[in-house]
Amino acid sequence: MDELQKALNDKSLTISTLPEKGRCLFTTRAFFPGEVIISENPYVCVPNKNKESPQSKCEWCFSSRNLKKCSACHVVWYCSSKCQKSDWKLHSVECRALSKIDKDRLKSLTPSIRLMVRLYIRRKLENEKIFPTTVMDNYKHVEPLVSHMSEVDEKQLVLYAQMANLVNLILQWPDSEVNIKEIAESFSKLACNAHTICDSELRPLGTGLYPVISIINHSCLPNSVLVFEGRLAVVRAMQHIPKGTEVLISYVEIAGSTITRQKALKEQYFFTCTCPRCMKLGQSDDIQESATLEGYRCKDSKCNGFLLRDSDNKGFICQQCGLLRDKEEIKNITNEVKLISEKASTSFSSGHKAEASVAYKMVEELQMKLYHPFSINLMRTRETLLKIFMELQEWKEALLYCRLTIPVYERVYPRCHPLLGLQYYMSGKLEWLLGETEAAVRSLTKALDILRITHGTLTPFMLELLSKLEEARAEASYMLHSQDED
Ligand SMILES: [Zn+2]
Ligand SMILES: [Zn+2]
Ligand SMILES: [Zn+2]
Ligand SMILES: [Zn+2]
Question: Taking every annotated instance into account, which residue ranges of this chain make up the domain MYND-type (predicted)?
Answer without folding.
Answer: 58-95
